[in-house]
Prior knowledge:
By secondary structure, the chain is α+β, with helices and mostly antiparallel strands. Helix content is 45%, strand content 15%. It has one domain. The chain has a five-stranded mixed β-sheet, covered by helices on one side.
Amino acid sequence: MKRTLILTAIFIGLVFFISCGDKGTETEKAADKKDEYQNYLQAMKDIKALMGAVESYITFSDDMEVPKANNIQELKALVEPEHIKTCPVKDPWGNDYLFQRIDKENYAIATAGSDGNFLGFEQVGKYSAQSLSGQDIILKTGEYVFAPE
Length: 149
């Protein structure tokens, strides 16, 4: 009888331990998802700030053209500090933002997202906030063309 009670207590303890472990894992997953969502929001905020700097540059430049830059570092040299106090260069995942001068009137700004693998400026469409992981964000001449809904 005593042995049965001990085995029952051990069994109940194991069940409790396993169920608590699962809840901890679910809590961690939820926290990771929230962090990822916050990173995507920050990236979109940074891209909008970069857009504002580019638009300001266009408005106040003599030729009224998109900055003649081939990447984010060259863009930073042209817009900071006159058009933006601090130009965001790195996305929330530590990768450089991407800048492309398409022509004298059009440009694109992007991030490769959480996986750091950029699939190209030709991407278009919206994707669910439920499927953010690894997705790029692309803004072209003031409009998000590939971004979360």
